[in-house]
């Protein structure tokens, strides 16, 4: 039988000079209840899965601000992942059964004692705010936690459950539209309050995320409600949730979309909406994967609670949260976004699209994205799609942060991911994820791969993990054995190429600067949404 101390997670071990230290075990007691996680793995990592950070957003809490978890009786079984949040697509598998009761987080810690105060990294998953979840195997934190940090991954509400806006909801609680982002902020507050019990430092938290996770972090940095919740941020392939489809939705646009959805369902009240099953509602709000979800799906909007202004404008005006930032993009982002751009069209249609987007800047656009041959046209159309959906805004967030945050030199770092191998044949959107987490199993995009990862792949992964964890520890990714990562200092400064060779690169930012020149007060033209729909199709 375990001792009482073991059961409450406090194996009391006498140390030299009479010092008493609390040894961290799989049993941890919080002020809201006790949890039982998984014993230490072979590499010494404890894991705790499926811990609720909020009350279930069901019944009258469907489409409501997340409520802090009150607690639980007894010891919570935290050995398996909790339910996944409902997704708006059927092409991505659920990694655990879906449920509205999905606001769970997971923790990996290699700390020997609860008093260690290891740096904390909180992962926000991608998926266009439409799919994904923390139980995906590539996000397992065991290997990354072995680098001396505490890893946390979270779920948050997606699609219609996370981002429906309605006037009636505004009257009922906080302004509606961004419940999924509110979930993220509450999860960050939970970590701030409880992570010290797992050996983490609540004052040294880094948020990191990719795609919609990167967009989430840019948005969180734009929200006054995020102040004090994290000290550093890593944005992988995302920042502002704007694109060639125009800026983030306004409050009125989001509410119009919500009213249209309500009409589609034939209901007249919130009570009727909440009486419908979650599956019925989710099935009525699918995302067409051939379109930009910013236009055709339920996604973040200016809700006047989490977001008061477009993130690009907030950064441009220097009103974002002032934290150290590391961010970058891949060389073939467009691989997943070709349907969102002027690809697969004729030379005349492509040039018409350039005219519609850039007006008098058309000739410059044609120089940067030439179409003199069919092959060149295809490459340029792809480059433009990848730039407009991901790369430009990630660069602009970096550059604006450097110029407006007023932080010391060495607070902003940029990378460009180009690595390929037989295991990873294309540096596509999401390509860095297995390397960031050290989980070189089946690739999240390509699936099982032959040949399997090589020693070179594992070595490259170790390099990225070291950079990412150094940044979390010190605010600087560099280390004694790593190739030097240059500081981002605006203008045409070098960045780090994470490729077959890892080295500083004098990158050409001219395409991104051209696109950024169409921002007014940090925001893309509203009319681009109409151009996107007419040129690409809705």
TrEMBL record:
Record has DNA-binding as a keyword = no
Q: Where is the Carboxylesterase type B domain?
A: 27-501
Q: Which InterPro entries match?
A: AB_hydrolase_fold, CarbesteraseB, Carboxylesterase_B_AS, Cholinesterase, Type-B_Carboxylest/Lipase
EC numbers listed for it are: 3.1.1.-
Any one Pfam family match given in the protein's UniProt record, by short name:
COesterase
Q: Which PROSITE patterns match?
A: CARBOXYLESTERASE_B_1
Q: Does the keyword Signal apply?
A: yes
- The signal peptide annotation in the UniProt record is 1-18
Where's the active site on this chain? 211 (acyl-ester intermediate), 333 (charge relay system), 429 (charge relay system)
Give one GO term, molecular function aspect.
cholinesterase activity
Sorted keywords for this record are: Hydrolase, Signal
Q: Which PANTHER family match?
A: CARBOXYLESTERASE
What family does this belong to?
Belongs to the type-B carboxylesterase/lipase family.
Please give the name of this protein: Carboxylic ester hydrolase
Q: What is the lineage of its organism?
A: Eukaryota, Fungi, Dikarya, Ascomycota, Pezizomycotina
């Amino acid at each position: 039988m375990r001792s009482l101390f073991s059961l409450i997670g406090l194996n009391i071990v006498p140390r030299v000079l009479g010092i008493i230290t609390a040894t961290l075990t799989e049993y941890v007691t919080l002020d809201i209840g006790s949890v039982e996680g998984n014993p230490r793995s072979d590499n010494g990592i404890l894991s705790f899965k499926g811990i609720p950070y909020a009350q279930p957003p069901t019944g009258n809490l469907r489409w409501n601000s997340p409520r802090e978890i009150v607690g639980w009786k007894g010891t919570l079984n935290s050995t398996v992942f909790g339910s996944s949040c409902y997704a708006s697509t059927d092409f991505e598998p659920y990694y655990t059964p879906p449920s509205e009761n999905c606001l769970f987080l997971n923790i990996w810690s290699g700390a020997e004692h609860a008093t260690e105060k290891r740096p904390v990294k909180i992962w926000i998953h991608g998926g266009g705010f439409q799919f994904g979840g923390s139980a995906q195997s590539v996000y397992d934190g065991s290997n990354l936690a072995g680098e001396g940090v505490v890893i946390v991954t979270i779920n948050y509400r997606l699609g219609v459950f996370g981002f429906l806006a309605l006037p009636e909801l505004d009257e009922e609680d906080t302004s509606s539209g961004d419940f999924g982002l509110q979930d993220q902020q509450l999860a960050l507050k939970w970590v701030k309050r409880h992570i010290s019990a797992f050996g983490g430092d609540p004052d040294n938290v880094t948020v990191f995320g990719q795609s919609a996770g990167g967009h989430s972090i840019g948005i969180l940095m734009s929200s006054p409600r995020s102040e004090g919740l994290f000290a550093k941020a890593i944005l992988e392939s995302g920042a502002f949730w704007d694109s060639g489809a125009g800026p983030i939705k306004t409050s009125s646009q989001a509410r119009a979309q919500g009213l249209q959805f309500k009409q589609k369902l034939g209901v007249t009240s919130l009570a009727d909406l909440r009486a419908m099953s979650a599956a019925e509602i989710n099935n009525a709000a699918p995302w067409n994967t051939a379109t930009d979800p910013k236009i055709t799906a339920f996604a973040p909007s200016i809700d006047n609670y989490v977001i008061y202004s477009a993130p690009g404008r907030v950064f441009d005006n220097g009103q974002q949260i002032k934290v150290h930032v590391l961010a970058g993009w891949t060389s073939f982002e467009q691989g997943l976004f070709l349907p969102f751009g002027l690809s697969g069209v004729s030379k005349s249609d492509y040039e018409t699209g350039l005219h519609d987007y850039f007006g008098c800047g058309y000739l410059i656009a044609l120089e940067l994205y030439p179409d003199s041959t069919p092959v060149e046209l295809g490459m340029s159309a792809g480059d433009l799609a990848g730039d407009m959906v991901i790369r430009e805004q990630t660069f602009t967030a970096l550059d604006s942060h450097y110029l407006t945050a007023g932080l010391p030199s060495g607070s902003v770092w940029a990378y460009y991911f180009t690595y390929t191998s037989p295991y990873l044949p294309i540096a596509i959107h999401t390509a860095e994820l297995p390397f960031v987490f050290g989980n070189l199993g089946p690739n999240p995009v390509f699936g099982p791969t032959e040949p399997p990862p090589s020693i070179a792949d594992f070595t490259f992964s170790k390099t990225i993990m070291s950079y990412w964890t150094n940044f979390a520890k010190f605010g600087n990714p560099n280390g004694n054995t790593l190739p030097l990562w240059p500081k981002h200092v605006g203008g045409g400064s070098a960045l780090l190429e994470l490729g077959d060779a890892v080295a500083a690169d004098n990158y050409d930012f001219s395409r991104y600067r051209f696109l950024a020149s169409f921002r007014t007060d940090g925001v893309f033209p509203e009319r681009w949404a109409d151009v996107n729909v007419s040129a690409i199709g809705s």
